[in-house]
C-alpha cells in the first residue's frame, strides 16, 4: 500500500527521464518487492468511451495521463497541469470530468432500475461524482478582477471572479465535484 501511494502521488509529477530513477529508488528501498499493477476496469473503459465521444484519438499515453490525473485528484485537492501549448492538458481534465460523470450516471441508472424492481440500491462509488467545471483564463483579466480588490474610494471589498466561483462552489451542498479551472498560461502574478 505504501509503495502504491508513493507511486500514485509522485509518478504523475515526474518527467519521463525521471521515471527510471524513481523506479530504481523504490527497488533500493523495497528490494524484492514487486509493485502490482492496478486494474482500472470500468474507469479505463469509460475514459476510452469518453475519448471517442469527444472526437479524440485513443492514444495510450493520453489514457495513462487521464488515469494519473484521476489518481492525483484522489490524494490532492489542488492540481496543476503543465506542459506545452497543444499538449492535451485541457482535453485531459475534460475527458476525466466526462468519464467520472458518466460513471456516476450509470450507477444512478442502475439504482433507478433496481428501485423500479423493488430491489435495494447498490452502494455508489464515492470516487465517481458528477463534475461541474468553472473555467476561466486568468491572463485575460486583472488581478483585482480575478481575486477581488478593495476600493479605496468606497471602502468596500469587491470579490473577483475566482473568489466568487470558489465561494459559490463551497456553499453548494451537493456531493458533486466542482472544479474551478484556471486554463491559461502560468503567470508569476496570479499563481501566487
Short overview:
The chain is mainly alpha-helical and 192 residues long.
Based on the model shown, name its key terms.
single chain; globular; two-stranded antiparallel ribbon; 192 residues
| Content-based structural category | mainly alpha
Query: Measured on Cα atoms, how large is the radius of gyration?
Result: 20 Å
Give the termini distance in whole angstroms.
Answer: 34 Å
Shape verdict? globular
Total number of helices: 8
- Indicate the low-confidence ranges by residue numbers: none
- Order of strands in the sheet with the most strands? 1-4
Largest sheet: 2 strands, parallel
Mean pLDDT: 89
SSE order: HHHHHEHEEHEH
Helix amount, in percent? 40-55%
Strand content: 5-15%
Instruction: Find the count of extended strands (DSSP E, 2+ residues).
Output: 4
Overview of the structural elements:
- With about 190 residues, the protein is mostly helical.
- The chain is about 50% helix and about 10% strand.
- The strands form two sheets. Strands 1-4 form a two-stranded parallel sheet. Strands 2-3 form a two-stranded antiparallel sheet.
- Helix 3 packs across helix 5 and helix 4 crosses helix 5.
Secondary-structure map:
Elements: H1 2-10, H2 19-29, H3 41-53, H4 60-75, H5 89-116, E1 131-136, H6 143-147, E2 148-151, E3 156-159, H7 161-171, E4 177-182, H8 188-191
Helix pairs in contact: 3-5, 4-5
Amino acid at each position: 500500500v505504501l509503495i502504491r501511494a508513493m507511486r500514485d502521488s509522485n509518478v504523475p509529477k515526474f518527467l519521463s527521464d525521471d521515471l527510471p530513477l524513481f523506479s530504481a529508488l523504490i527497488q533500493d528501498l523495497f528490494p524484492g518487492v514487486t509493485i502490482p499493477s492496478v486494474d482500472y476496469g470500468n474507469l479505463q473503459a469509460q475514459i476510452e468511451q469518453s475519448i471517442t465521444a469527444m472526437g479524440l484519438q485513443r492514444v495510450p499515453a493520453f489514457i495513462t495521463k487521464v488515469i494519473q490525473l484521476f489518481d492525483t485528484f484522489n490524494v490532492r485537492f489542488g492540481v496543476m497541469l503543465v506542459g506545452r501549448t497543444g499538449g492535451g492538458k485541457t482535453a485531459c481534465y475534460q475527458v476525466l470530468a466526462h468519464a467520472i460523470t458518466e460513471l456516476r450516471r450509470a450507477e444512478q441508472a442502475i439504482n433507478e432500475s433496481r428501485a423500479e424492481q423493488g430491489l435495494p440500491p447498490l452502494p455508489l462509488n464515492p470516487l465517481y461524482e458528477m463534475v461541474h467545471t468553472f473555467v476561466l483564463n486568468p491572463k485575460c483579466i486583472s488581478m483585482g478582477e480575478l481575486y477581488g480588490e478593495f476600493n479605496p474610494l468606497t471602502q468596500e471589498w469587491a470579490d473577483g471572479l475566482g473568489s466568487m466561483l470558489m465561494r459559490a462552489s463551497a456553499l453548494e451542498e451537493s456531493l458533486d465535484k466542482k472544479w474551478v479551472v484556471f486554463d491559461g498560461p502560468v503567470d508569476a502574478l496570479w499563481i501566487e
